[in-house]
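[step 3/7] fold_predict: job queued, chain A
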Amino acid sequence: MIDPGLLALLLSPWALALLGLLVGSFLNVVVHRLPIMLERQWWSDVVEQLRDRGSFRRTFAAEAPAGLEQAAGALRRALNALGRLSLLVPGSRCPTCARQIRWVENIPLLSWLSLRGRCAGCAARIALRYPLVEVSTALLFAAVSWRLGAQPATLLYCAFVAALLALTLIDWDTTVLPDAITLPLLWGGLVAAALGWLPTVTPGQALWGAVAGYLSLWAVYWLFKLTTGKEGMGYGDFKLLAALGAWLGWQAILPIVLLASVIGAIVGLAMKLQGNLREGRFVPFGPFLAGGGVAVLLIGLPTVLEWMGWH
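[step 4/7] structure written:
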């Protein structure tokens, strides 16, 4: 057993804020690299599809032209020339001069401040977003500690908000919510609830939260598509709301959706008025779902329901 005093120290807002800076540094890597890794995988899938003559024959009722095999070979060679890319390999480099970033230049927040936001090699600007992500993660971890106190579930919910922050940034950049994050987040919530690790969510609430989260947006998606012939959201939004339901319970689904819809409409309208939203483009819904989930977690579901007159 860990000494209660030591546990209180390790899970204090200050300690978890320091952990958040480190995790935020890693999230910067995830947000940058994971979409590229996904696109490479999609092109690799294209290569395999181009080489599948049986699939072409079944789909088009004709033999595949010889040019497809040549195109597949060219794509495969181009992919192989890119080299290995993962969340750990290769090491971080300056995107301007390709200089390897030393560990002393990679200390969360402090390195950016000491370098005054510029590369030590070529003096190119380092985006402000990197330290902002680190600080945001630190603040979220500290807020979770302040809200939940020194208990093991605090670390679980820190991982929860870190995943939501990564999904928010990736969705905002690419309008994609990767299964590589949403599905582990969903199953992690269900397993944590089943093992009794979530203090305010029972296994039944988590299960029905996941079901309600997925089916509610799935129904809205198909209603909108059948009515207008257009897709109003992606399947990633269904999975994200299912994950939020698993971690926060089915009672949180409607407050999250209402918060996300109102804030998303306000942001979308503001972007439209400022000319930042081009014709035919849309504001991704995932960041606002994630924000609604974080708000419910930090404010507390009973308080949110009381504000809405439902408790």
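[step 5/7] annotate
The chain has a mean pLDDT of 91.
The first helix runs from residue 4 to 10.
exit 0
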